[in-house]
Amino acid sequence: MSKKILVVDDSRTALMMERQILETRTPYQCVTASDGQEAVEKAQQERPDLILMDVVMPRMNGFEACKKIRQGTNTREIPIVLVTTRGEESYMEAGFQSGCNDYITKPVNGSELVALLQSYLGE
Amino acid sequence: MNPNENHASAAKRAPAADPMNDLRLSAARKRLAESRDEQDAIEGLREIVGNLLGCEEIGLFKVDPRSNSFSVCWSFGADLDNYDLSHALGATGRQRVMQGNCHIELADRDRSTGMAKAQAFVPIRVANQTIGILAILRLLPQKITFDAHDMELFKLLSEEAAKPLFGFDFHSGSTPAQPEMKP
Q1: Residue B77 forms part of a structural domain
Q2: Chain A residues touching residue B41 (CB < 8 angstroms)
Q3: Which residues of B touch A21 (CB under 8 A)?
Q4: What is the ipTM of this complex?
């Protein structure tokens, strides 16, 4: 059974791009959410093997969602990679404090993204 | 160094085949095509430029064909109330975009902020006419400059953004509707 990645972004363009990368360049299954609140719910329902999540989103941002997912008994071990336009050190530090495992900046380099996902999930 | 020489060499150099870039172009094309209305197309444009290119200071200008003047119809991340696009383009840049070519300005990094200062002015075209100009005003710090793949994205926006952004009816040949767009 293929491993599952939850992709979270309020941008339809980013979701399309990341979904296409996953579907055409990896064996992983892709499910999506469009804000942090939905991400927390989908993480509990879908139990993904990894979460790839934007930071700046409506309703609940990526940092808050990351904290909530870390508090869930069934979701606390899921690797979380935050994806954002903000590359400043203070922002990255806030990301790691919220509990993420990795942090990458936009624009996403597709090859680097695939390599990063493989480092967590294997080929 | 003449910045347009850089642009010309970047644009003419055939980019190496890159399936990831094809996916990027495909996502941009799909997002524009799926726009529900002009406001949604504007949001799509912001997403494309922010997520796929790496810029969060953008302006969209409309060209008045009678006076050949420019007016801001939307901006994001930058206050363009007093922005003079004609001045920013200069005579050469103006000629380039009106003829349908992108105009790229490259400058050294700002030492105080570390921000790159590359800018791009992308003509939005229909029926061999430039009806709008997308100004990419400041790249994100992690995006150093434009590359050959970015030129492909600009070409796509130039050729395919007019209809979703300005509601232009290609088949009737009617003049573009005057959009009422707010930031």
Answers
A1: yes
A2: none
A3: 20, 23
A4: 0.91
This prediction's pTM: 0.86
Of B26, B44, B53, the CB nearest to A107: B53
Please name the residue ranges forming H helices in chain B: 3-12, 19-33, 38-47, 85-98, 148-160, 162-166
Is B175 contained in some domain? no
**CATH classification at residue B58:** 3.30.450.40
Q: Which residues of B touch A (CB under 8 A)?
A: 19-20, 23-24, 26-28, 30-31, 34, 44, 47-48, 50-54, 56, 140-143
Let me know: does B164 contact B44? Beta carbons within 8 Å.
yes
Count of the separate structural domains present in chain B: 1
Would you list which residues of chain A are within 8 Å, Cβ to Cβ, of chain B?
Answer: 9, 11-14, 16-17, 20-21, 24-25, 85, 87-88, 105-111
Is the Cβ–Cβ distance between A13 and B47 less than 8 Å?
yes
Q: Which domain holds residue A42?
A: 4-121
Best of B35, B51, B57, B150 to substitute, by most chain A Cβ atoms within 10 angstroms, is B51
**Domain limits at B157?**
3-166
Burial class (CB in 10 A: 0-12, 13-18, 19+), B50: buried
pLDDT tens string A4-61: 999 999 999 999 999 999 999 999 999 999 999 999 999 999 999 999 999 999 999 9
